[in-house]
Design brief:
By secondary structure, this protein is mainly alpha-helical. It is built from 27 helices and no strands. The protein is elongated, with a radius of gyration of 33 Å.
Amino acid sequence: MIIHRLPFGLILVLTMVFFRAITLADSSEFLFDKAFEADKSGKLGEAIQLLSEAAELDPKNSSVFNNLGVAYCRKKQYDDAIRCFDHALGLSPHTAGIHNNRGLAYQRKGDLERALMDYKKALELDSMNLEALYNRAILFEKTGSSARAKADLKALVTADHSNVKALLAMGRLNLREGSPDEAMKNFSAALKLDPACIDAISGMGDANFLKNRFDRAVDDYSRVLNFRKQDAVTLINRCAAFTQMREFEDAIRDCEDAVNLNPETPDGYYNLGNALAASRRDQEATQAFNSAIKLNPQRCHYFYNRGMSLKRIGQADAAVEDFTKVLEMDPSHVHALNNRGIILWAGNNIQGAVQDFSRAVDLDGKNARAICNLGGAYLSIGEVDKAVHVLEKAHRNYPGDPDIAIVLGDAWIEKKRLDKGISIYRKALEKESDRKKKCQIHFRIGRALEDSGNVARALKSYTTALEFAGDSNAIDGLREKISVLKSRTNQ
């Protein structure tokens, strides 16, 4: 299972707005201007020092304290920033911009409730304060209030058609909600306004990925990497797209580059493991999954995919441990239950397997593999009536599923109802397109006919099975079977 990482980051905009205030003394105004020049030159510490001196000289000027608060916030000194904004609001309580800036400081500090109160107050004072509207939308996005975030963003775009940030945020929300078509509209609109907007191009890649247009996603991610060559996240996303396209060498190369750029990214190792597993290099895949789990042991899909690789290379006990770990984190993980049940069944722990398959079916009654496995497990311990009960119900609900029909046919054959079993096998043939399974079904029909004494029809079914056989062992076995039956008829 490929997990495609879609970045939904918090975007905050803090701007130092310097303007001359006619109430400033000459020395305070001079310091204010010097701070502006220092900030433009990237000397944030010097700007803070100059603004602090200006604040001492003119403690009643709200703009000085507001800009000092912005500077502290940019330096991640949020308590100092809030203290400055509090002072500024004491001097100028009806200034929407200061409420907005304090809201940003609270938001970055993690106090989302107070941040929301400040954004609300800013918008009460100035309903067209677009920064407050945007920042509140991002807060709603961060807390999962998608509908409220969208409402703010729509209002923002209506007021300012050229707001690229709002369009990007709308696109991210639509991606999160599984609406790639709407997201593409948002990102396309952003690109019309700014053709070089890398985040919009990346968003188009994410949307194309969700629409299973992996070749287009690769093109989009490649465009991003032309501008940001050392972007580990985009390399990981392109790896996921390459894996879906079965271009495994390109996928592996991308994720190896990503983990070299950022050895602390668990998603890089996870997607590398997926690409290696998809290319049947499960031994190497387990090592990649090991690294992902070491960096982040809280993600159950890391354990699940490692368990699948361990299962394929025959490390059954280790695979069971991984599937058990998955179920500790997510007791409703149907695939972990089903695969653990398969291993337990192969290890002759039939009762344990039945329990896992039963839970899987209870959780997802549409899961054909779990239903078939439960029916097969019942058959293997002689609980034929239970097998028929489970499979008949599934067959009625999903008559087009050939896997369910095949095991149901096996159950009726086991009950010595050869005619009914053969009838169900023939219905399965009508739905089945896989040649290997067609071979198996024709073989089953032949065996049932042979058991009923109809050797001529059995021969015909075995001969048809031979036409679909692709495996050399199956071909040899069928030829021997046909030869033995022919010799019996000639005696």
